[in-house]
């Protein structure tokens, strides 16, 4: 096997040593032999020691704190490959997918993000989100090799490093949870395209080591922040009203709304409305978001 020097993998992890070991076993067996960077977000379960002992070829960043999605920024900063595949600690790429992604990105210099088909393990069934990616209502350039997307799923995507750096990576403010939407809007505003490519495949065996209430709280908060950071007033009001009408009425949602409200000063200070061509992508997704069964804020 010969290493494909065009693409590397960045994995973020937190408190999931066993899942990470499984994912790394599979990533390091790929025919592309990708360079792999692991950013351990302040784990206390021996994750960093396990990586050092079992995978000396992996580049490890042992952060003393949980950086969330910003850990991906740290990983990307260590790389010089033109393309970066992101991976969560409970996901792994199908053999051949990274080379296929690099070939497509080579052939389409205006393309920033390729999102893969996601298979849920064990069993290999398609994740419900795949149908939404396949049937995306977003309009994109005629030359796109797959359906245009308005946003993407970081743990199942390959990005052009130049585009990622151009928009500043993932937001420190959002931390983790729907952080891709803000970046997707900024990529579109800068003239980049995003698309779904079904010949790429990511496997996802969801970890049980997760805090669903924290994920829901941060997801609601980040949706509101992203909406008011980038959407025009009327669409922002419309999406806010729909969100408030559909989230569970409990303490988790209340905390999310309080955190969102606390961020109003900086949101208004940093608000930058998307240009019409980028806003059109989010507008096209409104009906799909309203009826989606794969994107509900529940825990």
Automatic annotation (TrEMBL):
<comment type="similarity">
    <text>Belongs to the glycosyltransferase 2 family.</text>
</comment>
<dbReference type="Pfam" id="PF00535">
    <property type="entry name" value="Glycos_transf_2"/>
</dbReference>
<protein>
    <submittedName>
        <fullName>Transferase</fullName>
    </submittedName>
</protein>
<dbReference type="InterPro" id="IPR029044">
    <property type="entry name" value="Nucleotide-diphossugar_trans"/>
</dbReference>
<dbReference type="InterPro" id="IPR001173">
    <property type="entry name" value="Glyco_trans_2-like"/>
</dbReference>
<feature type="domain" description="Glycosyltransferase 2-like">
    <location>
        <begin position="9"/>
        <end position="130"/>
    </location>
</feature>
<keyword id="KW-0808">Transferase</keyword>
<keyword id="KW-0328">Glycosyltransferase</keyword>
<comment type="pathway">
    <text>Cell wall biogenesis; cell wall polysaccharide biosynthesis.</text>
</comment>
<dbReference type="GO" id="GO:0016757">
    <property type="term" value="F:glycosyltransferase activity"/>
</dbReference>
